[in-house]
Amino acid sequence: MRNFTIQGVTIPDDAAYKDVVVIGNGPSGIALSYLLAGNWPYYNGAIHPDEMLTARLSGAPPGRSIVKQDLRFLSQGLEGRSNNPVSLLMDTLNHPCADLGLELPSLLEWHHHPECQVDHIVLGKGPPGGSWQAMDGNILTISLGSWMELPGVDFRAWEAAGNTGMSSGPTSSRDSRASVSSLARYYYDYVHNQGLAKFFRNSCVVTSVLPLDTSHSQNKETIDPETGVQHCEPRALWRVEGFDLSDGIPFCYICRRVVLATGQSDLPNRLGVSGELNNPTWVLHDLRSLEAALDRLVEEEEGDREGVPTEPRCDPVLIVGAGLSAADAVIAARFRSLPILHVFRKKAGALGKQLPENMYPEYHKVHQMMGDGGATYPCYTALAEHRVLEISSDHKVCVVGPDNVASVHRVSVVAILIGSRPDLNFLPPGLGLGRKPSEPIDCRSNPIDVDPYTHGVVRAPPGMYTLGPLAGDNFVRFLQGGAVAISSHVNKELQHQTVL
Ligand SMILES: Cc1cc2nc3c(=O)[nH]c(=O)nc-3n(C[C@H](O)[C@H](O)[C@H](O)COP(=O)(O)OP(=O)(O)OC[C@H]3O[C@@H](n4cnc5c(N)ncnc54)[C@H](O)[C@@H]3O)c2cc1C
């Protein structure tokens, strides 16, 4: 391979040029790809309960897509559970008054414009669906199933068409939530059924994203061999490098725009205690591996019991954390009748408090167990206001309580479920992209600082964008706004691109 350099950055001879490279193939990357493929949203003319919004929408020339309109004007004055105005706009059009508990029809229609397709590629570690392909398939979403859907394909209709591979039983309010396994399949099918697969390079890892200093280089002029028309290709601004997971073969893309859509769940948070990383077969940091470990425990138990039902004899499963994932772990261990030791730093806390009990009975049950120490489930022990001090390789864990008294417990498996954070190690160090530039990116407390109407990253060199959790939109229902903001900006820019 022959390489060349631009201002000291090496470009392999076989590098591919793209207008847009999207890193991350979860719901954010998929929604953006749908828009970049030329699928645009249109207001359908119905009355929105927000009269001012209806007036703003009705003022646009007939037949003009939202992508082509002034997003600042359309989204002014909107309020809700996102800090990003275009996310609020798209959410209120998709799910009018959802936070008031109403289930009103969407005010959007999607039309395909093949001539507006933007040359792009979406890169991701696993199959399309991102983190939903890596989560434990048995758990249910917090959100309603309809809030998890992507543009143009109704999740409930897709499910009703028998796509989940599961039989449909009697419905209850819990059925309005979706299972992780159904969603993983929905996102995968979406990419294939919407003709997006050609834009996806799955099973690959991006290892480096580097801005190119093109201040001295000229735009590249090319002549179309068929039409003889001379085009002016915009200057490349970014080099994106990585490798395919199947064969380790490296790849390189040169692009004018790079989009960070890598989500928030690649690096599980650690306790940082001795022994936490030395015992990876039984000290775990994700629910999926925990489920597999619990199944192994049950198998060993059943072997020991030789078919005679007895009290569980294995050492308890130690679960650390007080969030929904820790609660899912408690449910998983309880479902298998395994003994549980649950360590969390605060008192019983606010787990599930904001969630209505009829829709989330499982989380309310765990909250109750955390409060009463497990009076209704004798194999559960809550160690509230405790923290782990040390994990030793002989399965002994030392914890300390509020009175500073330490105790040692023998356990079978440890599940540390205390949240996760994004992995942006492929970026050059020291960019300081967060709203608090000197602190690491955290999707809740320090998301990437973006221009609210383009989702361009404020403190990055030109051409970098982000959406989804990295831009502070931690729920799927809001990430379409980021996709609309980015595709709107890219399309407006491409319109101004010189055609000589
Ligand atoms: C346990 C759990 C439950 C949740 N429940 C809900 C819910 O009920 N409702 C809701 O709306 N949201 C929920 N969320 C949040 C939801 O998962 C995210 O909002 C959503 O998945 C964000 O989509 P995304 O595409 O931005 O990121 P992701 O879905 O995280 O996808 C990004 C993908 O990019 C990949 N990637 C990262 N780095 C690289 C790299 N260097 N090279 C290649 N690929 C890379 C990641 O591995 C990942 O597969 C939940 C999250 C978790 C963890």
Automatic annotation (TrEMBL):
It comes from the Eukaryota. InterPro entries: FAD/NAD-bd_sf (IPR036188), OSGIN1/2 (IPR029731). This is Oxidative stress-induced growth inhibitor 2. It comes from Zootermopsis nevadensis (Dampwood termite).
